[in-house]
Amino acid sequence: MQSIVIVGGGISGLSAAYYLEKYAEEAGMDISVCLLEGRNRLGGVIATERCGDFLLEGGPDSFLAQKPAAVELCRALGLADQLIPSNDEQRKTYILQGHKLKPLPDGLMFVVPTRVGSVLRSDLFSFSGKLRLVLSPLLAPRLPPEEDCSVAEFVSRRLGRQALERVAEPLLSAVYGADVDSLSARAALPQFIALEEKYGSLWQAIRQARRNRSLQNGPRQQASLFITLRNGVGEMVSALEKKLVKTTLMTGSEVVQVETDSHPGGYRVRWQGGELETPAVILATPAHATARMIQKLDPELAETLNEIPYHSSVIVLMGFEEHQFPQPPDGFGFVVPRSEGKKMLACTWVSTKFPFRCPPGKVLVRCFFGGARDPAILEAPDDRIVQDALSELHSIIGLRSDPAFIRIYRWERCMPQYPVGHPRRLQRVAASLQRHPGLFLSGNAYRGVGVPDCIQASSAAASAALDYLWLLS
Questions:
Q1: How many helices (H) and strands (E) does the chain have?
Q2: Neighbours of 361 (CB within 10 A)
Q3: For the sheet containing 31-36, what is the strand order?
Q4: Fold for domain 104-214?
Q5: Which residues of the chain have pLDDT under 70?
Q6: Would you say the pTM of this structure is higher than 0.70?
Q7: Residue 374 carries which DSSP code?
Q8: DSSP letter string over 9-37?
Q9: Element spanning 198, H or E
């Protein structure tokens, strides 16, 4: 029987264990897996809990439908009947601009307008900003192959400063907690880079997409943007735990070192209270944690991983009566550009986006803080965070009432940043791993921060690990 160790019990480590068992069974391989997690619980930043009739998500509350890995895993786990789309009849996002909430124009593909008319009618942009967007097809450059630049440079050169400051920056801050002046365009916007490289420009790609739609018969139905689980994203964690039959799950086992063992090509994994020898290891941990574990094994690789910066995040959930709001919350929520001078990055009306998570007549609010805009937020006391949240909700929407309950979730160094040059850094990581057959990496530090990205990466790591074990047998 071949053995393998997984370090990290978040969604990356758990899905790696699932795919190891699945692929081994399909290949007729007999394996045993040991998963080590330093915390006393599994799930990482996935944190689902109930507060009376409210369903709270302290971490990710859904996954993007356009990235199928999470939905496919849920179906494989027997959760197909629990998958629920967002309430897209009310899907609308607002941008805080000039102290007012203004709707994001219809037909934007991120920041690229597919319907010029909706942009021209919007009051989000000034006349000059609209003119710059309309003229973008004539002005937009193309990023040379293999070159990288910041998101700020990529967007502003193609679409203008207002598109950057009023749309791209707040949307990406809500996802990455990032500083767009240093965020890699190739890492954060790979789909747009690919469209440019395939069609010559974003505008050619949009025209091609329109042409393809016009060839389809019948009306085109708008697909749901977000998918979640009826009982919360934590249901996926519980289902994975139950599904694993050849995996030993060990919480409260913080790994301190991964080193070579006495057998050529093998590894010794040490944690507080024990050690294991294994031919293969999957490190599904944050880059800085992985770097600490492999410092003696490969100082150069550890240094490269330590170059991946992280930001911390704070999520505040509050429950209100609907009548406490001056006007019923509209749409899914709003994002806040840094130019507005607020601490809040974004706010979601959970009771609109996923109505089943909230009783009728109630409003569930989710506020986001931290990231590059406020790196010290993690050290702030609870009362200051709550005061900031309520004060800014008052200034933005006129909310004056106190919530029925408050939950604060603090996530230290949980948000990896992909600075300019990140793709080349990944190339160096891959080259370093060639020196260590049987060592594999997964997690959100490399090629995507979302739940589907982590699952996809872990599936690939599990497949590569089994291929390696097969060669040893």
A1: 17, 22
A2: 9
A3: 247-250, 31-36, 2-7, 281-283, 439-441
A4: protoporphyrinogen ix oxidase, domain 3 (1.10.3110)
A5: 109-110, 113-114, 138-141, 207, 209-223, 262-264
A6: yes
A7: -
A8: -BHHHHHHHHHHHHHHHHHT--EEEEEE-
A9: helix 190-199
